[in-house]
Amino acid sequence: MRLHRLDLTAFGPFGSTQSVDFAELSAAGLFLLHGPTGAGKTSVLDAVCYALYGSVPGARQSGQGMTLRSDHAAPGVRTEVTLELTVAGRRLEITRQPPWERPKKGRRAGTTVDKAQTWLREYDAVQGAWKDLSRSHQEIGEEITQLLGMSREQFCQVVLLPQGDFARFLRADAEARGKLLGRLFDTRRFADVEKRLAERRRAAETRVREGDADLLADAHRMQQAAGGAMELPDLTPGEPGLAEAVLVAAAVARSTAREQLTAARCRLATAESALADADRALDGVRERDRLQRRFAEARERAARLEERSGAHREARTRMERARKAETVAPALEMRDSEDTAHRRASRAERHARALLPAAFEDAGAAGLAAAARRAAEELGGLESARRAERRLTELLGEHAALERQERADEEAREDAETWLAEWDGTRAGLRDAIESAQQAATTARELDVQRDPARQRLNAARLRDRLAQDMETAQEQARTAREDALAARQHWLDLKEQRLNGIAAELAGGLTDGDPCAVCGATEHPAPARKVDGHVDRETEERALAVHQRADERRAESEQRLGGVREALAAASAEAGDTPTEQLAREADELERRHTRAREAASVLHDAQERLRRAEHEHGIRVAARSEAAVRAASRVGHRERLDRERATLEEELARARGEATSVAARAAQLERSAALLTDAADAVRAAEDAAQRLKEADARLSDAAFRAGFDTPQAAADALLDDAAHRELQRSLDAWQDEEAAVRAVLAEPETAAAAQRPPADLAAAQRAAEDADRRVRDAASARDAAARRCTELDRLSARAAGSVRRLGPLRDEYDQVARMAGLAAGTSADNERKMRLESYVLAARLEQVAAAATVRLRRMSSGRYTLVHSDDRAGRGRSGLGLHVVDAWTGRERDTATLSGGETFFASLALALGLADVVTDEAGGVRLDTLFIDEGFGSLDDQTLDEVLDVLDSLRERDRSVGIVSHVADLRRRIHAQLEVVKGRSGSELRMRGTR
Q1: Alpha-carbon 30 to chain mean position
Q2: pTM to 2 decimals?
Q3: Beta strand ranges found along 541-679 (DSSP E)
Q4: What letter does residue 866 receive in the DSSP assignment?
Q5: Nearest to residue 187, comparing CAs of 764, 818, 680, 840?
Q6: CA nearest 932: which of 981, 861, 971, 859?
Q7: pLDDT digit string, tens, across residues 432-450
Q8: From residue 855, how far is each of 163, 410, 610, 700, 936 by CA, in Å?
Q9: Interacting residues of 243 by C-beta distance below 8 A, sequence separation 6+
Q10: Distance set, CA 455 to CA 345, 462, 583, 591 (Å)
């Protein structure tokens, strides 16, 4: 990395813009940055750091960059830092602007904050120009960090070399050295490894403890299942031997449980045998008890039968009389049937005689039949009178129909006469309406032809008005475009003239010693023209020309638009004329209204023509209806006369036929009813006589049947009869007696029942108690057997689960042992780590050993070969070892602590350590070459000889094409170092001045 140029504006103590040409300072190899205290020497280094990383070292970075602004800067000047450098073969320019609280624009009071901005550009040697790379803070930060290979902390320690920090580093303890080296070499990954190993150890230990806890929980479950007979080991989760102890205890518990299961099975078999004996004894007692109760019940039933023997004999006698009476039952039923028929026939005879006149009260069946025949013969003679009566009714209907037709024809004739009287007026009105509608249609067609020209003229007038407004706008735009084009042209010509006036300086910028001048051809250029302030280059002139060309194009476009508007306005004015738009609109509206009224009036033409056609058709219908009504009236006169003559003849015939009745039909109804009553009465008399004869014959047969059955009278036989329900009930009672008597004899005759009755009474309660006791002992034994079986099953299950847990825990325990051993070694707590050195300390010790070796090369030259820095990994007291740093004194040959060095010795030892550290960190960062270094203070503690030796060492860095900047206010250094960058302090802010450069 090589710095070329640094520009500061309103940064730190610098109120105005200051520039540092590091290319000229670096040409001497060694340069001095000096100035009074507080002038801003460190601010120059802060600006370099801020340009690269966007922040400054240490506590000076606060307030998100707001404190970087100079208090001497004008309110309108923004803080800015620009750094040009070469890194990794690429020439870059970084510009950063921190957040800026500026006054609000315009007349608004107060301030506003602009965000921070960053630019990154790269110089393209082929094109000879800078090209933009990025404006993103994050992208630029990542790009710079990747190119440098160092973080901000590493850069501040390696490139800016703060001597006070390295003096403290020499005297610090191992812990302080570790913190500084950890920041420089970024050994966080090794600390992360330690942390990761510790986390893995804790995680593995947690998994082992959780597994042991689960195993111990299973052991407690086995102890509970074993009924407390299992002894558990006195171990906690994570202790060695827990798994083996649990498995041994589980095996003992399973063996004991199986022995208990065998004993329980034997006790159950004994109890089941005793239960079988008790059940058999109980069955025998129950059978004897049943037989004894059966015999006692049979004796009781026999006694009850003996008590009811009298009633049984009476029922048997009654059943025998009922069977005899059943032979007389048909004669009894016949006599009752005939008696019922005789009474029914007598009632019918009395009813029929009551409907006849008194003359037939004592008439016999023959007399009644003769009277009925006479009435039927008279009824047959009335048939011709009935036909005459029906015809008379038809004549009356025809006469009424003629009357209705006459009235209808009269009404139709009157309606036709009324309508025809108004026909002439109706026809004239309809013809007038048709003529008016035809005239309106003609008017509508004429107005329709005038509508389109009126609308076109109105639209043209409206377009004319709108284009007139557009004309004014286009004229204003064209005028503005012409003014802008003239101003841009004048600006371009002014810049072109300025460039031509300063073209000598522009040509001189391309001159190189030894190359001929393009103007005069000389190869020496003793006094080339220099650019003055405000010089115009080609790029500026070309930009102005481009602005002028664009303005001229806009002028041409505006004039073209103006010409188009003018042409359109002329065309619209020619079509619309000079008539105002409002007048044209009124004329068009009036024309539209007239056209609408004409169309509405013409729309009734078809309706009027249709009404006239219908009226003419109706006129023909009315005339025909009037003629037809007159014809029908004439034909009805002869028909009415014929009907009247036939009606008179029929009325005379009917008067003779109906006699005293109101009509022939009434007379016929009287004769029909009389003949029917006489016939019914004759039939009823004959039926009553036949029923009396059959009843007499039935009485004789009943008396004979009762005598033969052994009954004194027919009534005695009737009393002995039983109905079906009484017969069934009596038979059921007799059958039940016989069944009960047979059953009692059978039970009393059973040998085993009689034998059981001779034995003592059975004690059923005692036998049941014995059986229940035996059953309870079986249940208890079965419960004990089941509990023992469940205990064995549960212990087998838990043992298998515990064995599986032990198998799964095996790899976890092995992993835990390995991880714990590695974590102990990395943390320095393991017994195998004799020096108690952590992994990060071990890596830092290797880096410190490299730093000490690199620093010794320069320290030996600075101390004239007296001192050598060496790394020590000895433990300090009870602490950990690995980061010790000693100095070997060649004069005494002894190794001593760096804290024993004097002030001057400490300075050049820390300087050598800083330079060595820079080399090692550079190699660690990927070999990025650091061509520019800064050393801050410490030279005032050296004597002249040591100072010369130190400066010789620093000057030797030029052999590696490095430049070293010394930051110091020691006056003797201004005499020894010619190339200087002086910081001058003033009331308006500090300024930078370069001395001793070309």
Answers
A1: 71
A2: 0.40
A3: none
A4: -
A5: 840
A6: 981
A7: 888 888 888 888 778 778 7
A8: 14, 153, 129, 173, 18
A9: 212, 215, 805, 806, 809
A10: 117, 11, 12, 10
